């Protein structure tokens, strides 16, 4: 029985090992692709947040500019619109 198992492993062991290594290589490649995708998503999210921060600052600056207008000019513009 032991010699039969030995012959079986010698005969088919290499095929099983090659298949295992191919599977491990495929898993490693998938992991590399996932890491690349995650990196790209992270960079795009960082850019999105930076853009959002600039938009918020611009909006606040516009509000401050609007609030800095004299109240007489604001009244005149609202009464003219009526």
Pick out its properties.
2 helices; rod-shaped; single chain; 82 residues; 94% helix; mainly alpha
Structure notes:
The protein is an all-alpha fold. It has one domain (2-75). The chain is built from two helices and no strands. The chain has helices at residues 2-67, 71-81. The termini are far apart. 0% of the residues are buried.
Mean pLDDT: 84
Largest sheet features: none
What integer value in Å does the Rg equal?
Answer: 34 Å
The N- and C-terminal alpha carbons lie at a distance of 103 Å
Report the helical percentage. Answer: over 70%
How does the overall form come out from the CA principal axes? rod-shaped
Tell me the count of domains.
1
- Strand proportion, as a percent range, falls in under 5%
Helices and strands: which structural class?
Answer: mainly alpha
Quickly count the helices. 2
In total, the number of strands is 0
Question: Could you state the order of secondary-structure elements as H and E?
Answer: HH
Low-confidence runs of at least 5 consecutive residues: none
